[in-house]
């Protein structure tokens, strides 16, 4: 036992804090070196390759999604280099620890350097081989714009608009591929609600409470034919086409009460079969809860809770279902857990209001 325990604890804490700051500074330096090295590699591409894809940034996305790199490396690498997302933003988008994302970025850099992987745009007949990774990157960039990880604003319109712009280019390049059409329509439908998602004081407004008169009907009109195309070009439809179909059901409902939740639940069930990820199952749970009651949704939420324990939206969804079921104490505990994990100020303020409501009940 130290002679002065309090002083010992303070000294130890100070040293640990200094060590952590040094590690974080070193990590930032490595990220900057990675971005610089890859930018130089892309800038050195021959001029004849640069004109292959009629958009410089999209060309960079396809270049970074080289098949010699594992998909788990392609996506964070491209998000960092081309999308400009930070490591915390990428980690949130992929629902991964920041340390894991940082390791993948370093390993991708080493792979590029050691293996001599050419960061060049693929030939036109090779675009399809990289399409899945490219679409994943655009989707994640859009999601960061749709619900920002940090900053005062919930929406980063610049990121969302850029993802939509690049989505249009991909659809023009590959008009007979269903998933580019599905992703483009999905982004348009979500972005159409941007003006109604935030209140006058910057507060988050849930879908059921949004002013549907403020939705961008022009964007919705552009998106709906694309949804039909994505669903009919290939059977069975892919995950982006199915998500676009779900968004279309919301867009076509005149009021929140008129939403066909049973159809949405069926579409999510098909999406969970095609793409059986925990996040998809969480969204299925919400749809089932709206169609069949909160108890039915909670059963699905509890089944995926262990795999999404660090995902604030799982706890927020669980809290909402518990609140709807008339269990304010359990809902408050779930809101507290969601609040501990949420990073966006607008989302945090919303969760704080919900927690306060539960405390008053």
CATH homologous superfamily grouping of the domain at 277-361: Tetratricopeptide repeat domain
Shape: globular
CATH topology of the domain at 277-361: Serine Threonine Protein Phosphatase 5, Tetratricopeptide repeat
Largest sheet: none
Computed over alpha carbons, the radius of gyration is 22 Å
Give the terminus-to-terminus CA distance.
47 Å
Structural class of the helices, strands and pairings? Answer: mainly alpha
Helix content: over 70%
- Per CATH, the class of the domain at 277-361 reads Mainly Alpha
By oligomeric state, this entry counts as single chain
The CATH architecture of the domain at 277-361 would be Alpha Horseshoe
Strand content: under 5%
Q: Give the beta-strand count.
A: 0
Number of helices, counting only DSSP H or I runs of 4 residues or more: 17
What is the residue-averaged pLDDT? Answer: 83
Enumerate the spans where pLDDT stays under 50 for 5 or more consecutive residues: 41-51
Order of helices and strands: HHHHHHHHHHHHHHHHH
Could you describe the 3D structure shown?
The protein has 361 residues and is mostly helical. It has a domain of 85 residues: Tetratricopeptide repeat domain (Serine Threonine Protein Phosphatase 5, Tetratricopeptide repeat). 70% of the residues lie in helices and 0% in strands. Helix 5 packs across helix 7 and helix 11 packs antiparallel against helix 12. It is globular. The N and C termini lie far apart (47 Å). About 3% of the residues have low confidence.
């Amino acid at each position: 036992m130290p002679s002065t325990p309090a002083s010992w604890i303070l000294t130890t804490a100070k040293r640990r804090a200094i060590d952590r700051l040094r590690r974080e500074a070193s990590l930032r330096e490595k990220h900057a070196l990675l971005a610089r090295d890859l930018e130089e590699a892309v800038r050195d591409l021959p001029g004849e390759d640069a004109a292959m894809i009629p958009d410089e940034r999209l060309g960079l996305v396809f270049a970074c999604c080289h098949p010699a790199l594992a998909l788990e490396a392609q996506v964070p690498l491209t998000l960092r280099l081309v999308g400009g997302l930070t490591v915390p933003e990428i980690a949130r988008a992929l629902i991964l620890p920041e340390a894991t994302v940082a390791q993948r970025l370093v390993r991708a850099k080493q792979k590029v350097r050691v293996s001599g992987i050419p960061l060049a745009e693929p030939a036109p007949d090779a675009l399809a081989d990289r399409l899945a990774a490219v679409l994943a990157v655009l989707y994640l960039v859009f999601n960061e714009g749709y619900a920002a990880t940090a900053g005062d604003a919930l929406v980063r319109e610049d990121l969302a608009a850029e993802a939509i712009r690049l989505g249009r280019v991909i659809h023009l390049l590959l008009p007979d591929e269903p998933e580019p059409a599905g992703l483009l329509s999905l982004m348009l439908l979500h972005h159409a609600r941007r003006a109604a998602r935030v209140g006058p004081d910057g507060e988050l407004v849930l879908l059921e409470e949004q002013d549907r008169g403020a939705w961008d009907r022009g964007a919705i009109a552009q998106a709906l034919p694309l949804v039909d195309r994505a669903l009919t070009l290939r059977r069975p439809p892919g995950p982006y086409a199915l998500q676009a179909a779900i968004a279309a059901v919301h867009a076509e409902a005149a009021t929140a009460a008129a939403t066909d939740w049973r159809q949405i639940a069926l579409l999510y069930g098909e999406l969970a079969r095609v793409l059986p990820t925990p996040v998809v199952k969480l969204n299925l749970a919400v749809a089932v809860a709206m169609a069949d009651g909160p108890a039915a949704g909670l059963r699905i939420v509890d089944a995926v809770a262990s795999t999404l324990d660090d995902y604030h939206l799982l706890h927020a969804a669980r809290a909402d279902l518990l609140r709807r079921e008339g269990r304010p104490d359990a809902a408050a505990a779930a809101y507290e857990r969601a609040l501990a994990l949420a990073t966006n100020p607008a989302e945090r303020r919303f969760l704080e209001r919900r927690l306060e409501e539960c405390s008053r009940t």
